[in-house]
Amino acid sequence: MVIFFAFSSLNRSFIKGKVEKLVDEQLQATSGILKVNFSHLLEENYTPEDIFAQFSGEKNIYYMALLDGNRQILGWQSQFEGYLPLSKESLATERTWIINSPAGKIFNSFSSFSLPGGSVYFLYLGYSLSDLEEMMIRSRKNFYLVFGIIVAVGILFSVGLYQLQLHYLQKKRELEEEKKEKERYRSISALTSGVAHEIKNPLNSLALLFELLSKNAPAGTEEDISSGKEEIRKISRIIDQFSSSLRPVELTKEAFCLGDIISDVQGSLEKEAKERKVQIQFVQSHRIELLADKGLMRQAVYNLVKNALEACDGGGIFIRADQNKKRIRIVVQDTGQGMTNEEKERAFEPFFSRKKEGMGIGLYLVQKIVHAHEGRIDFVSEEGKGTTFTIEIPGG
After folding, report:
1. pLDDT given for residue 246 in this prediction
2. For 3-43, how does the pLDDT look when each residue is reduced to its tens digit (9 = 90+)?
3. pTM
4. Integer Cα distance of 151 and 101 in angstroms
5. Helix-strand-coil percent breakdown of the chain, rounded to 5?
6. Which DSSP letter does residue 276 get?
7. Which CATH number is correct for 249-394, 3.40.50.300, 3.40.50.2000, 3.30.565.10, 3.90.1150.10?
8. ∠ CA 46-51-53, rounded to 5°
9. How many CB atoms lie within 10 A of CB 77?
10. Is the pLDDT of residue 310 over 80?
11. Of 372, 379, 374, nearest in space to 393 by CA
12. Does the pLDDT of residue 332 top 80, yes or no?
C-alpha cells in the first residue's frame, strides 16, 4: 500500500508536470499566432478594442492585454470582468508563470513583438488550467478509490492470513499433542499388556484353586471362599477394563433410535438412583435416528450418567437430546458437587480419579468413543453447583 501510494503520487506529479509543459508550449504557440495577427491589425490602424473583439471567442484564454513599449496598458479583456492580475513585478521580464485566481489556476505569458516600423508592443495572456485541474481532481478521486479498495483487500487478506496462521498453529499444536499422547499410551499399552499377561496366569491358577476349595471346603469357610472368588473376578475385570481402554476404538455403525439407548441406560441405573434419592429425567425434541456404533454410544452415555449419579447426593440428572440438521447433541446435566479446578483440567486424563473405587477411565473412554465418531465433547462445571457434559456427533 505504501509503495502504491508513493508510486501514484510520483506518477500524478509527473503527469501534471508533463501537462503543464504541453500547456506552456500551446500557450507560446497561441501567443505567437496572436502576435502575428495583432501586428497586421495594428498596421491597419485597428484600435485595441476592435482587435480584442475579434478574439473574444477563445474559450481557454481567460484574459488578454495589449501593452505599448513602455508597458502601459492600451486595452484588455477578461472573462472575469474587472480581473487582470498585472503588477510591476509581473511585467519586469518576459516569462511564463502560474497564478491562483477566482477561476482556479491560470497559466500566464508575457512577451513582446515588433511591427515592421519598429514599434514594440507586449502581449499578456492568461490561459485557464481548469481542464487540467478537473483532470487532476478526477485522478485524485480515482486514486483514493483504488487506494481504499487496495486497503480493504489488504485488510481482508491480512485478517484471512492471520486466521489461517492461527488455524495452522492450532492444528500443529494438536498434532504434536496427539503424537505425544499416542507415544505415551503406546508405552502404557505395552506395559499394561505385559502386566495383564503376567497377572492373568496366576489369577487363573488362583481361580482354579478357589474352585477346588469350594468343592471340598471345610464347614464355616464357604463365605470366605466366596469372597475370595469375588475378589479374583474383580481383579480380572479391572485388568480387562484397563486393556480395553488402551485398544483402538473400532466402529460398527448401524441405524438406531438414540432415545432407546438413553432409556435403556436410565433403566439400568434406576435402582442406584433411587438409593441415592436422585431423579433421572430424559427429554428429547423428537425421535432421533442415529447412524453410529450402538454399543459404544450406549457405553458413552452410560459412563456420563453413571459419573453424574456418583457426583449427586439427592437432586437430579437431566438428559436432553436434540438434532440440528445431521448433527446430534446429547446433554447430561447434574446438580451434584461439581469439579475442582484440578479435576476440570484432568477430566479426560486416563487413570485419574478422586473416587475411592474409581479407575479413572470412564471419561477417557467417552472421549475416545466420541472422537472415533468424529464428534466433540465439552463440559462446564462449577464446584458445589453441578456439571454439564455435551456430546455432539454427526450421523443424524
Report:
1. 63
2. 767 777 777 677 777 777 777 787 788 888 888 888 988 88
3. 0.49
4. 36
5. 55, 20, 25
6. T
7. 3.30.565.10
8. 130
9. 18
10. yes
11. 374
12. yes
* C-alpha span between 123 and 95 (Å, rounded): 11
Residue type for 289, please? E
According to DSSP, the residues that pair with 76 across neighbouring strands are 65
Architecture category of domain 2-128 in CATH: 2-Layer Sandwich (3.30)
Query: Which has the closest alpha carbon to 38: 27, 54, 23?
Result: 54
56-96 pLDDT per residue, tens: 766 678 888 999 988 898 988 887 777 888 888 878 888 88
Distance CA 360, CA 313 (A): 20
User: Is-contact 229 207, C-beta < 8 A?
Assistant: yes
**Listed residue (293, 360, 288) closest to 331, CA to CA:** 288
Radius of gyration of the chain (CA): 49
User: According to the model, what pLDDT value does residue 100 have?
Assistant: 83
**CA count, 13 A, side-chain hemisphere, 192:** 18
- Grid cell in block for residue 374: 468424529
